[in-house]
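Protein Entry — a single chain follows
Next Lines — sequence and tokenised fold
***
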Amino acid sequence: MTNITGKHITILGAVRSGIAAAKLAKQMGAIPFVSDYSSVLSSVPELDELGIAYELGGHTEKVFNCNFIITSPGIPSDASVISKAKDSGLKIISEIEFASWFCKGSVIAITGSNGKTTTTTLCNHTLNYCDIKTYSAGNIGVAFSEIVLDVKEDEYVALEVSSFQLDFIDSFKPKYAVVLNITPDHLDRYDNNFDKYAESKLKINANQNSDDFIIYNIDDEYLSKSKLANGKQIKFSLKSLEEGVFVENNNFNFNTENKNEIICATKVLQIKGEHNQYNAMAVMAVAKLIGIENKKIAEAFSTFKGVEHRLELVRILNGVQFINDSKATNVNSVWYALRSFQNPIRLILGGKDKGNDYNSIKELVSDNVKKIYAIGSSSEIILRFFEGIVETKKMNSFEEAVNTAFEDAVDEEVVLLSPACASFDMFKNYEERGNEFKQLVMKLSQ
């Protein structure tokens, strides 16, 4: 455990992870100072109660009067305050790096372009179901700093980590590192350079050693060619493997040098879709390495109902399924969503564009989608791209998109919200977008 008593620490960002880091810093004897560029907040009651100093509406020179800086994932790595701190020679770390200094338990860090939340939630559910005390934290909702001091030596943390959080790690070293996939996403934050984005993801493996495990999807085009030099490699695949977790004859299998075994039938998994089989295999690998019996893994999987805003069935009205996939904030997520339904789809697509390339879903859209309802600031981009491929109409509002899709839909069709874009042009986050979709759907009448 690192001694930070008396250290002056600046935390950039007065939101969830920043507030949690400030609280942890104070609890460990440091002197935190929080700085937030946004002028939306007028005060932060949680910091006031603890007597933690802060500033809002801009970063002043006070930011640099510290021993090191903790940055929130929402702050771009090329932000002027970050650049200036680097030029000043100040050490900059992420909140997950900071919290890891004080973690006594084992960290299961899960990253990837898609599936992080489902996999983290399933991992947390499975281990706790099997009487292994596990906390869920990170990019999933609860900051790592918020729970880290509660974690005992024989306990686990299922930690969802984004590339932004991995950008500023130093010694962060998970016992189990899981990489689900790496496909283009957030390229606006990485100079439209896919390799830079992918390299950030693979930092999850940077500090591991021979006592640790790197669990990854060998079917992923980028990962299949990547050098993951640190930790013991555990692969997972939808095709047979000599070693690792894989699907064969509708069963999940686990092969090692010493033993080949069937874990359970794929039908045990309640969440559907090829992508969820990948997510499940990642969790199976962790569970088997920890020593959980196959029967218990199967029981845990059979009781897992999925994650809100991820291919969530909202309602069936007049034979039309309404599916909330608001968490699909990149094109690859939409690719999986479109492959998850046999019925014709009416697709609500759009939001804040992140440098999307829609070519990967062009064929699926042509084959499976009856009409696209384009929303948000990217609607014109979507209209231009899908012209001549499928009927596409620009919507004036989110409500209009939902209502028009319902008016157009017929029995056995699917109205799918799977935006491929961030929500920030219309909503606070993807959760708010998904909740609004559900509310609008529930207002519809026959």
User: Anything to note?
Assistant: Residues 26 and 247 are 48 Å apart (CA to CA). The mean pLDDT is 93. The chain has 15 helices and 20 strands. The domain at 103-302 is CATH 3.40.1190.10 (UDP-N-acetylmuramoyl-L-alanine:D-glutamate ligase).
